[in-house]
Amino acid sequence: MKIALVTGANKGIGLATARRLGREGDHHVVVAARNADAGAEAAGKLAAEGLHATSLTMDVTDPASVAAAAAQVAERFGRLDVLVNNAGILPEATNTSPKEVLDLRMFEQTYATNVLGPVAVVEAFLPLLRKSPAGRIVNVSSAVGSLAHQTDPDSPWYGMVVPAYQSSKAALNAITIVLAKALADTPIKVTSVCPGWVQTDLAPGNREQAPVTPDEAADVVHRAATLDAADPSGTFIDAAGPVRW
């Protein structure tokens, strides 16, 4: 049975992704969450649905927490087959600070979770992914971080200005490319995915206005998490296919 770990998996896209992977039947899903009770509750829901799931307490912004979580996975499973870096935040959506366009506090807060978090998680869990015959890393990104979309007046995302969030996703995409090149001589494949505008708690109004359900968003994450050996690494995809960097 494959071992899949999803960060921020107690709700939203993370929980839907954990459920989608668990329904394959050959995945034991590790529900990683910052809040131990929330993670245990989510894993319990999945287990009650007949899926193989356990919870793991991990705060991606705390390297010690990440290292301890990796040690627990190593002790229990001995390897990791799928890593989904899903945990992410958008504090600019509720920021009322009278700053100029760039707000250092927003960058520090956003990057801690959206960029440094995945870096810490990959660093800690890569040795376990190397023990898998077909390791997969999925970085949950966004088309709003695409430089091509940000500079294209015809893009639906052109008018969006949330600098910390957009640049954090651009940085995450760059990490995907670097990892794919660094791991090119291994079976590990790395993919950035844009799940779309999803009905989550990421920003006010998302649940009411967003057109994509978490279950629909989980489909594209699942696709990247289960790439065939012949599929390319280092790509950026959404439900429709490749996304411009």
UniProtKB/TrEMBL annotation:
Assigned keywords, A-Z: NADP, Oxidoreductase
Name of the protein in its database record: SDR family oxidoreductase
InterPro entries linked to this entry: CBR1-like (IPR045313), KR_dom (IPR057326), NAD(P)-bd_dom_sf (IPR036291), SDR_fam (IPR002347)
Record organism: Myceligenerans crystallogenes
Keyword NADP: yes
Lineage: Bacteria, Bacillati, Actinomycetota, Actinomycetes, Micrococcales
Gene3D superfamilies per the UniProt record, alphabetical: NAD(P)-binding Rossmann-like Domain
Keyword Oxidoreductase annotated: yes
Tree of life domain: Bacteria
Location of the Ketoreductase domain: 2-245
Family per record: Belongs to the short-chain dehydrogenases/reductases (SDR) family.
